[in-house]
Fold this sequence. Notes:
CATH class of the largest domain: Alpha Beta
Oligomer: single chain
Shape: globular
CATH topology of the largest domain: Rossmann fold
Radius of gyration: 24 Å
Strand content: 15-25%
Number of helices: 19
Largest sheet: 8 strands, mixed
Helix content: 25-40%
CATH architecture of the largest domain: 3-Layer(aba) Sandwich
Structural class: alpha+beta
Number of domains: 2
Amino acid sequence: MKNAKRWLVGLISFAVLLAMAPSTQAATKKKTAGSDPYGINKILKQLTQKKKVSPNKYVYLDVVLKPRNEGQLSDKVYAVNTPGNSEFKQFYTPAKFQSEFGQPASVVGQYKPFFKKYHLKSQSFSNGLIIKVSGKVKNVNKAFSTNIQSAKYHSNPVQFSKKKPVMPAKLANNVLTVLGITTIKQGLGALAKKQGDSSKVKAKYAPSKFAKHYQLQSLYGKGYEGQGQTLGIISFADVNKRDPEHFWNSEKINTKSNRISVKKIGSPTSLATNDAIGKLETTFDIEQSGAIAPQANIRVYQANFSDVGLVNAYSTAFEENRASSLSMSWGLSEYLTHYLKTQRLLTPVYGQVLNTVMAQGALQGISTFVSSGDTGAYNRGIGAKLGPISLPNYSTYGTFPADNPWVTATGGTTLPFSKKLGDGINISVDKERAWGGDYMFKAFAKNRKLFLSNVSAYQAMLAGGGGGISHLYGTPQYQQGVPGVNTFNARSYISNLMQPRMNPVLVSGTDYGRNFPDVSANADPMTGYQVYSGGKWLVMGGTSAVAPQFNGATAVINSGKGSRMGFWNPQIYQLAQDKDKTPFTVLDSDSNNSNLYYVGQPGKIYNQATGLGTVNFEKLFDEYQ
Length: 625
């Protein structure tokens, strides 16, 4: 094994999200456009290498306006996505969303002359909530009375302003927050591979494995292949259209021609992703989703993984309303959202902003899938400090935005397989189970040298499908009362020092919040899928395979039904509780079935290792309304 799978929890820049303050500045008749309740000034002593940002540097901001009727938003999402409701399937348009939840055009229109006065470009989304602003730093500073600088915070690049952004009081009154003035950039993990390069296409790693194993093949037989649909990919790297086309041709998949289009979205240029890793991830997403729905169009929304980029990528997709389904394979450790808040680099408002944005997509009937992560139940946090170096810690933290209540989070399983590792050591899995590297622990105990001399092999033992219980979002309505939600069985397969535990005891408990994932499918690199990128064939895995596969499967179902499935979760949690209608195979064993911490809950329909389980798409098509 050349490289182990690691979840892309890193490279994200998050703004200091500024809540409204009541005070006004009488002398200038200006008001804070989002106060700083935690105080960037309180951490200035911890910043190093401070310097002014070039006045001609181009930056991107989002001015986020206060939603209207926010208390009714959740009820409307459920109304249009729940069978039996009088508003079921009456999906919104962006204009209708704005009329009920955004600011009216008369309010939004007041901002453009202000930004034009300072030579800043501005463009508002039709949802009436977000105004994109871009221009030179010197003009941003003049418009908002800020003093944008750069520095290092625990070796991470930071952009910040010691002064709070202010605007004329009339404009500031409707502002919830300004994104992009203060940002921090985290590091990016490695992408998952298995075996390294391959010289040719291998059937056992073909995307058709997904279609056959999860009963999607019968829908192809009926002529449903995603025709008339557009599936969207949220991406944070460049796209080379030739690679997916070569992949589909080599796999002998008869696809729609000229099917890929790219929408590039402006976002902070100083916060670029690792381009090689990002390209490979994006290519993987396009190839898998496009193979599952060969006659669908593919629309790639390409931004930069930042506070502004993430919001604008989704907002652009919902604004266009072209894609009936979306997927994203990036994420951030939920721990870091709490850490950045306590370190005064993030306030809880960002969760609110993204929640409103994702609710818009659900109201419009767009099915959104997000990968749950590839380090099992564990995510990276920040532990002790050694001089200027922050030492990481790993614990059962959630994954953002897979934890968002308006997305369908996709987890991972391992299919049956057997493999020789060398020196007479074999590993095997005899039935589909939650993806977790604990099935390698017996082999590790027999030959520790084999694993310790191979970093990739050792890391593979510490990989698994993301899943757990969010402490950022509460338990959504569709999960309340579902057997297994907010209760758990667990075995601590990994020690605090990230060492394998051979025979961990079973513990049970309760916790409260958004439980994720919702659904699962094969994600283990050992039983993964091929990708063609940059002239090479690689074998990869991870839940970043599952999200685009479900994206493609949704396009197939939509082409058969002639209408959008909409936001999956209200229906699938109902179906899962009906023994006759459920399309799910529950993986509920409490042994040999972990994501390195959570295991199954026998007799219950939900667990945090695999969610509701794997999907029979033929039955889902028949039962889903």
